[in-house]
Every structure is written in C-alpha cells, then in structure tokens.
C-alpha cells in the first residue's frame, strides 16, 4: 500500500455491501431468480475492481479470490432479496450510500493502479473504472444501456476529478491517510452536491448557431 | 494436471462441440450471417474457458490459441448452420447434451483453477464461470438478458455444487480420475433431474407476511 | 517490432481517431451525455486493442496507459460531438475511413500477437478482434446487437484474410514494411470492393432441397 490506510478494509467492505445492494435491486426489478440476484450483487459490488485488476494484471482479482469480499457482496444481495419491499422506499438513503461507494472505489482503485506501477494515465482510468465499472456491468447484465453514459448526471465527473487528484497527490509525494480521506470526501461531496442541486452534463451539441 | 484424466481431451471436445451448437442456434434464430453464426458458436463453446483463463492469468486462453478447439467450435457452428431445420426438432437431445457440457466445463474449469494455484474460493468461482460463462456470452452477443440469471431453473446451482465438491476432494487429497468422473456425473444428474422434475429456484422474495 | 514500420504510429493514430468518431456518432444518436459520448469514442477507438492486450497478457493495455492514444480517441469523440450535424451528411467519407481503420487495426493487431509469442492461431484471432472488437464494444454499450455479426456485409472476412496473410508472411519470413503495407491495402481494398459491389455473406441456411 502506497498510503497505509488503517481504515481501508472497513471502507472497502462498506462500498462492496452498498453496491451489491444496488445490483441486487436491479435484478429484483427484472424478476431475476435468487441466483441471478446474488450474481448481480456480486458483479456490481466487485465488478469494477475485477475490471481494474484484469486490465492492470493483478490476477486473480480479489473479486473472485477473497472470500470475505464475496461474502460481503452476497450479504448485500441477500439484504436486498429479503428487504426490497421496504428498501425501495428508502431510495434516498440508497442513493447517498451509492455516492459513498463511488467515492471509496474510485480512490482505492486509483491507488491500486499506482501501486501496480502502471502509468499515471492508467491509474486515472482504472480509478474511474473501479468507481463506475460495477454499475456498467449491472446495466449490461440486466439488458440496459449503461446509465452512467446517458443519464446526464454528475456521476463519472466527480470520479474523474477524484482519481486525478489522487494521482497529483502521489506525484507531489503527498499521499497519506489524511489526503486520501480528503479525496474520498471530495468525490462524495461533489456527487451529493450534484444530486442536491441537480447539476447535469450536457447531451449532444445541437450545432453551432447559424451565421 | 492435478488429476491425470485419460478421458479429458475427449470430454472437452464434446463439451465445446455441443455448446457451440447451442450458440450457433441462437444466432440462426436471430438471422445472423454465417460469420456471426460461427462467432457465436466459438464464443459459446469457448467463452466460459476464456473468461476463466483471463481471470486466473492463463493467457493466451486456449480458446484463441489452440486450433483444435477452435476447429471443434467451428464444426459445431457449421453443423447447426446446415442442419438447424432438423436440429430444432431435436431440442430434447440438445438440452441433454447441454447438461453434459455444463457438467464437463464446470469440473474441468475448477480443476484448472486449482492447478493455477488460485485460492479455493477462486477455483469454485471460475469453475461455475467456465460452466455457465459461454451461455452468458451467447446471450449478451444476441441482445438477450442472460437466461441463467432469470430462468429459475436449476442450472447454475448444480455447477456450484459440483465445483465445491471438486475443491473439497482436492482439499481431502482425493482427486483422481474416478472421483472427477463422479463429480461430472453428479452435476449432469442434478441438471437432468431438475429438467425431469421441473425443479426451480425462487424469484424475488415477496416480502415477509404482515404481522 | 517484428517488422519495423516507420509509418506505424501515424497509421495507428489515424485508425484510433476515425474509430473514435464512429463510436461517438453512435452515442450522439442515442442521446448520450458528453461523458458517454467521449467514453464511446474511447471504447470504440481503443477497445479492440484492449481486448487483444488482455487476451495475450500485454497489460496494462496501451488503451489505458498511453495518454497520446487516449487524447487521440477523445479528440475523435470531441470532433463528432461538435460537428455531428455536418458529419452525419458525410457518411460516405466516414464509411471509407472506417474501412481504413479496419485494415490498420487488423494488420497491426496480428503483428502484435506474433510479437508476444502467441501461437499463429492466436495471432489470427487477435488480429480480427483488434479490427472488429471496437465496433462490437460500441454496439454492446449502446444496447445494440453487434452489427458485424448480422449485417451480412463483407467486414470481418477481409480482416480474417488480412490477418491470415500477415501470419503466412511471418511464417515465410517475408514480413517487412512493404509487405505489411500491402496487407493493409489488401484489407482496405476488399472492404471497399464489398461496399462498392454490395458483396454479402449468406444468412442462415434454409435447409437442403427436398429430395
């Protein structure tokens, strides 16, 4: 670990648990069976990290080899399986928790990219992928177009800023538990602000004004 | 090879051939062209193994490097290309052969995971992936939601039991050609029993009874 | 580099730029947001190469680690973002440029496969994948069935012939800048001829004639 983070395992488990709930919820809505619901939880909670690990050569990815993370994802899936009628109504809380998972995954993913000795560019890319990849996998497996690509919310942009910040901190030799925690909070705050103030990114350019 | 299996190449070729037919049939139904039909055969027959190999670092996967397996998959695709009007009517036989392919791929995939020195957890996961991954790829490439996630049949569950059994046998140092054959037969028998007796896994939980 | 090609970086940048435009155009049509449009450009321009690199173990793939290629893909995406109302009308030119990208990616991808010491079979497969993989990724991410599998045009077949030719040239020890350039031109010419003369590959076989 470049920046030895005493709180990292706790953060990661929280992120996996919450993301797995989001994946399982999508599967419940599509009337998947219980196996499909748990697989969606696993793919959403751990898919971003697995994509990152395959791309940077850290195989086998922890998403298939670490039983504690798999149990966490399955627990998130089971939580949604049994309690979805109530949790559907707690949508606001889930969206906030998902913002937390985005922040955690992005920052931890960027750091893992730096540790594996990839280029700074690759660390930024895999950081964003770790943050948004689970959701992309969830959407593809449920037959949807990935929501992060077309919903026009600020979702990937906070991740991009966060992973770029982590790479800059590493460049300046300023990566420590405090700056890492600040980076997580920054991504989280940007995402929450985007939700609160309905900040959007533009759709296709409608053409330059006629001269 | 952990367990030296004299019959393994024959099993694998049979599994690839039958799975490739299942992929090519899906492509025929979607009116793909002959290139698409053969690619679907290849992706379905060899995709589960390729997913496994990429995740455990056994690259390049045999699915792209071993011409005998590729020829087998193409042969399965061509068989379906030319004979689909008759084979459509032999659906019952195809379902049984597919159960055989599931059993073979799961057990062989789990053993390959163990050989590569991954964790026991990873061996179970990649075993199931080898068994069901080709079908998932087939469904994604034909624009369908993966059937294994929502059809409520016992399909992945026999694979999960089979790959867990293989890992237990390896743990107890009891992996030999006979116990491996027994594991293949167990997965096959469970799958056939599920078909015969219409065993299902439940869909989303409908909520706890009102108090 | 097996065949030291002085013109290779230029070719690759041109291929990435044009393919990225094709991906961004698909995203514009689906009303993706600007982040989604640029991601589609990146995935289409660099996805075939990333798929190849992951399969042959050349990680991290240049598509995530080389900022020049990423900037090129983003530039292609931005070009389409701002100029799509005019570029839509230039469809004929885009199709021709896409034929060029197919030819470049296939030949360069096959050579990279040979350099990494994979089997001849794997080099042919990854060559075709490099050529058509970006388009497959584009279609999957926009919720479409991959067009290369069902459109019945000669698109993958020229790539297959081109990558086979490169492997034969390597086998005969005849791979030099001139024969490589000739291979690129061959794929391009076949693709353009297919467009010009509406050459097609057949759909599903309709059954043998009744006896």
What would you say this structure looks like, in words?
- Chains A, B, C: It is a multi-pass membrane protein.
- Chains A, B, C: It is found in: Cell membrane.
- Chains A, B, C: One of its GO terms (cellular component) is plasma membrane.
- The structure is a homotrimer of 211-residue chains.
- The first copy, chain A, has one domain.
- The termini of chain A are far apart.
- Chain A is 74% helix and 0% strand.
- The model of chain A has no long low-confidence stretch (mean pLDDT 91).
- The first copy, chain A, contains 9 helices and no strands.
- With 211 residues, chain A is mostly helical.
- Chains in contact: A-B, A-C, B-C.
- The interface between B and C is medium-sized, with 31 and 31 residues.
| Percent strand of chain A | under 5%
Rg from Cα of chain A? 17 Å
Q: Largest interface, per-chain counts?
A: A-B, 31 and 31 residues
Helicity of chain A, as a percent range: over 70%
- Sheet with the most strands, sense and barrel status of chain A: none
Structural class of chain A: mainly alpha
SSE pattern of chain A, N- to C-terminal: HHHHHHHHH
Shape of chain A: globular
Q: Let me know the number of strands of chain A.
A: 0
The helix count of chain A comes to 9
The figure for the number of domains of chain A is 1
Low-pLDDT segments of chain A: none
N/C terminus separation of chain A: 56 Å
- Quote the average pLDDT of chain A: 91
Assembly context of the chains: homotrimer
